[in-house]
Write a structure and sequence with these properties.
The chain is mainly α. It folds into two domains: about 35-195 and about 345-350, Cytochrome Bc1 Complex, Chain D, domain 2; about 195-340, Orthogonal Bundle (Cytochrome Bc1 Complex, Chain D, domain 2), CATH 1.10.760.10. Helix content is about 35%, strand content about 0%. The chain is built from 16 helices and two strands. The protein has helices spanning about 5-20, 35-40, 55-65, 80, 130-135, 135-140, 150-160, 160-170, 175-190, 195-200, 210-220, 230, 260, 295-305, 325-340, 345; strands at about 245, 270. The protein has a two-stranded antiparallel ribbon. The longest helix is centred in the N-terminal third of the chain and has 19 residues, at about 5-20. The protein is globular and about 65 Å long.
């Protein structure tokens, strides 16, 4: 063999050996949501972004990040501090304190069935246009985690375990804020609540009491509760329209809600209709947590409506203060609403904290 051929052979051999010694990129395992029958029978499939498909490794990473206080400036609070599984991922307070003890002006929204938010607007005022983007803001908000993303990313890169977890989840040695929020969004999309007493009733597995049945009738009756326009019906198991309404809380607004996002004064005082699922666990209620009990919420719609220039047309009886329910109808409506609560959701081990 000539020297030239020998040199070429050796060069090729070195290249092949070098390539064989390179670490092969880990391919994360695809994950498919287990869609409950009550959803598959009634509503279209969930939204999973093409650029953030669900994987076992991504979900596990997102769960760990969700419960890890490393995201906050002084490592004293995590996402779960304001979104506690035992409260259906809210925190049981009207508004939540951040790392500096400063309280915001909004109630912590519960988190479940987020993959079915078809308009992809999140938060009480709709300011975040994807679940991934929604997770960006709390980290740097001065009344929440009061950190900044370069510091958070640096802490994650220096962590003994996170680099390999990101590598496994995203086949990338880089850690970025976008990958952090993608992982958290993957975990949040797995938070499915669909096993309430009413769900089992709808599937023919359990009976409702007479009070709960009458409460459903009040809920669906335009002459009485008239609740279904904003909060769905048995054929919409999300129990929300995910739209924005001025539901007559105030005659004037210190918090403009959607109006502050769109700049349209016609949107002032409009906030997202929350799901009626899990009301047994998510008090206090409304965007500012002003109502401590479900009775107060019902009383508001019955006789406490406040008129304003942007009041929703669905608040048809605002001039009478509300729908004027009888005491019996109030009690029955409450019984029905509580039948939408899912105890298995708040006790699901897949949604509980893991040791970091």
């Amino acid at each position: 063999m000539s020297k030239n051929y020998l040199s070429l052979f050796v060069s090729i051999l070195i290249l092949l050996v070098s390539c064989s010694n390179d670490t092969e990129s880990y391919e994360p395992v695809p994950y498919s949501l287990d869609i409950p029958q009550i959803f598959s029978d009634n509503i279209i499939p969930p939204i999973i972004p093409n650029d953030n498909p669900l994987t076992e490794e991504g979900i596990d990473l997102g769960k760990r990040l969700f419960f890890d206080s490393i995201l906050s400036s002084d490592e004293s609070i995590s996402c779960a501090s304001c979104h506690n599984p035992q409260n259906a991922f809210t925190d049981g307070t009207p508004t939540s304190p951040g790392v500096d003890g400063v309280f915001g002006n909004r109630n912590s929204m519960p988190l479940f069935n987020l993959a079915w938010n078809y308009d992809e607007r999140f938060a009480w005022d709709g300011k975040e246009l994807s679940l991934e983007r929604q997770a960006l803001e709390p980290v740097q908000n001065p009344v929440e985690m009061h950190s900044n993303w370069p510091d958070v990313v640096e802490k994650l890169r220096a962590h003994p375990e996170y680099p390999i977890l990101f590598e496994n989840a995203f086949s990338s040695s880089e850690i970025t804020k976008e990958l952090v929020t993608k992982a958290i969004a993957q975990f949040e999309r797995t938070l499915i609540s669909a096993n309430s007493k009413f769900d089992r009733y709808s599937l023919g597995q359990e009976n409702l009491t007479q009070e709960e049945l009458n409460g459903l009738n009040v809920f669906m009756d335009e002459a009485r509760g008239d609740c279904f326009h904003c909060h769905g019906n048995p054929n919409n198991p999300l129990w929300t329209d995910n739209a924005f309404h001025n539901n007559g809380l105030d005659s004037s607004f210190s918090d403009l809600g959607l109006g502050a996002v769109t700049g349209d004064p016609n949107d002032n005082g409009k906030f997202r209709s929350p799901s009626l699922r899990n009301l047994a666990f998510t008090a206090p209620y409304m965007h500012d947590g002003r109502f401590s009990t479900l009775d107060e919420v019902i009383n508001h719609y019955s006789e406490g409506l406040q008129n304003s220039s942007t009041i929703d047309p669905l608040m048809k009886k605002v001039d009478q203060g509300g729908v004027q329910l009888s005491d019996q109808d109030k009690a029955d409506l409450k019984a029905f609403l509580l039948s939408l609560s899912d105890a298995s959701f708040i006790n699901n081990p897949d949604f509980q904290s893991s040791n970091n």
